[in-house]
């Protein structure tokens, strides 16, 4: 069933209202519930999960330095909306089927409030996971202005909880950003891009078995999920009416597995001003933007003098990435901009020529280098699965950076997929990528480079929390650990990989 394109208007999630606001802190309550929502006008309403009764959840907007408390409340039914695989770590039959825990992706947060995958809780906090510590999470928001997002992070079912709808934007603002005179108000719009598939009755489709089914299991995790329909802010192929002026868009790939290479069919440039961790030093005009799952790009699109034009945002990234099927007419289409609104005011916003300093972390400042492989392996059901440093989730902790120390991580990809590797707590910088001899590495455990060091793409020259580690390459990232100590995680953000052992704890020690 192919749905018509550009028949529904793009929804813009409302900004969440605080439950209480004090001079020194703000308190929110956020409920997770199951409800029906129209994802396309030709489709029956779809049962989804969401925060505060909507999918995507309301946007949480905070000021840099603001102390924010959030009580995340699970009011979901006891039965999962999607097929749970009870053989996956953390989702065995000894735990309740529906569990949640919330992580603000990209935020620097004390460990008790970071949404540790085993800190889950059920409805009414009746049952909680072994690492659960408290009901109300605390966010100190010590980051600069940036585009973050909150989403579920429960061990073993993150892919299902996020696919069901548990995701929303979390924007941090600051004075530096305000002084730049960027497009704002109704001219600043977050765009959460996801792929899904639907059953005829409008319900969400998520496979029960991989292409090569596991006969002894009723439900088995799949190695990747590739949907045939693209949604933005929870609508299938929406359109947005715009004025002939500049707009700022916060692009987020919140898909399970799919990568996007986004372009405008008008051929015009996108002016990227920010990465995962906030504003870059200089804006860059680019024809295309690559976004792996969880990556963000802050862009300005200028519709000036384009009155009457329809502009389509397209995608030409293969799925899976980089060796999967090319995008088709459907998955190659994201949304449409219609320049049909009259200009309501003179556009005085700007694309700044310089946003602010962003000092490079010096390689010399690193006190520790870690060599970490990305591997594939076979589990006891004969399913291929991916590992970090050849270790499963519950192997003893090996990454234990010291508070305040700088480390360089070599991500040595021995698989044929690109993995978006995400590290909690900190932002890193990408040093370089470099081709190496995989077969030789597997035999001798030494890196033999076969090509020159490739600097990060212009789109990646800012603070990052998620990096594409390509096959046959060593990707090097550098980061300083702090300001908190304690237990965090790093993982692949392909959710099917994350749920199936491609996640590891790490601990920041004193
Ligand atoms: Cu977007 Cu560990 O998360
Ligand atoms: Cu994160
Ligand atoms: Cu992966």
Automatic annotation (TrEMBL):
InterPro entries documented for this protein: Cu-oxidase-like_N, Cu-oxidase_2nd, Cu-oxidase_C, Cu-oxidase_fam, Cupredoxin
Signal peptide: none
Domain Plastocyanin-like: 45-176, 206-321, 374-508
Family as reported in the entry's similarity comment: Belongs to the multicopper oxidase family.
Classification via PANTHER family: BILIRUBIN OXIDASE (PTHR48267:SF1), CUPREDOXIN SUPERFAMILY PROTEIN (PTHR48267)
Name of this protein: Multicopper oxidase
């Amino acid at each position: 069933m192919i749905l018509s394109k550009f028949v529904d208007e793009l929804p813009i999630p409302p900004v969440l209202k605080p439950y209480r606001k004090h001079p020194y802190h703000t308190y929110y309550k956020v409920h997770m519930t199951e409800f029906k929502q129209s994802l396309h006008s030709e489709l029956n309403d779809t049962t989804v999960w969401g925060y505060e009764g909507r999918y995507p959840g309301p946007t949480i907007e905070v000021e840099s330095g603001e102390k924010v408390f959030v009580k995340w409340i699970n009011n979901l039914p006891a039965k999962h909306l999607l097929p749970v695989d009870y053989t996956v770590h953390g989702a065995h039959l000894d735990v309740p089927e529906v569990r949640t825990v919330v992580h603000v992706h990209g935020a620097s947060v004390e460990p008790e409030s970071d949404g540790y995958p085993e800190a889950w809780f059920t409805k009414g906090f009746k049952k909680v996971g072994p690492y659960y510590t408290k009901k109300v999470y605390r966010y100190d928001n010590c980051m600069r202005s940036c585009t973050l997002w909150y989403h579920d992070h429960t061990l073993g079912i993150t892919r299902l909880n996020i696919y069901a709808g548990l995701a929303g934007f979390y924007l941090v603002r600051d004075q530096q950003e305000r002084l730049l005179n960027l497009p704002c108000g109704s001219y600043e719009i977050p765009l959460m891009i996801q792929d899904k598939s639907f059953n005829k009755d409008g319900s969400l489709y998520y496979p029960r078995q991989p292409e090569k089914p596991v006969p002894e299991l009723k439900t088995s995790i799949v190695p990747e999920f590739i949907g045939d329909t693209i949604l933005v802010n929870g609508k299938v192929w929406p359109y947005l009416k715009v004025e002939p002026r500049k707009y700022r868009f916060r692009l987020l790939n919140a898909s399970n597995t799919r990568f996007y290479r986004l372009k405008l069919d008008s051929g015009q440039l996108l002016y990227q001003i920010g990465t995962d961790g906030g504003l870059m030093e200089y804006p860059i005009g680019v024809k295309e933007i690559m976004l792996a799952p969880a990556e963000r790009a802050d862009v300005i699109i200028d519709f000036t003098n384009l009155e009457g034009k329809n502009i389509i945002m397209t995608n030409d990234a293969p799925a899976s990435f980089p060796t999967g099927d090319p995008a088709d007419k459907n998955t190659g289409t994201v949304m449409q901009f219609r320049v049909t609104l009259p200009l309501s005011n003179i556009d005085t916003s700007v694309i700044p020529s310089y946003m602010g300093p962003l000092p490079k972390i010096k390689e010399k400042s690193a006190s520790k280098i870690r060599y970490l492989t990305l591997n594939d392996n076979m589990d006891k059901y004969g399913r291929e699965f991916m590992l970090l440093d050849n270790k499963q989730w519950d192997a003893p902790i090996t990454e234990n950076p010291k508070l305040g120390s700088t480390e360089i991580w070599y991500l040595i990809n021995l698989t044929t997929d690109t993995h978006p590797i995400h590290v909690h707590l900190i932002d890193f910088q990408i040093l370089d990528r470099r081709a190496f001899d995989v077969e030789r590495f597997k035999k001798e455990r030494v890196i033999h480079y076969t090509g020159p060091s490739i600097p990060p793409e212009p789109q990646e020259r800012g603070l990052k929390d998620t990096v594409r580690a390509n096959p046959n390459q060593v990707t090097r990232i550098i980061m300083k650990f702090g300001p908190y100590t304690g237990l965090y995680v790093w993982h692949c953000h392909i959710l099917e990989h994350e749920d199936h052992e491609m996640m590891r704890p790490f601990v920041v020690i004193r």
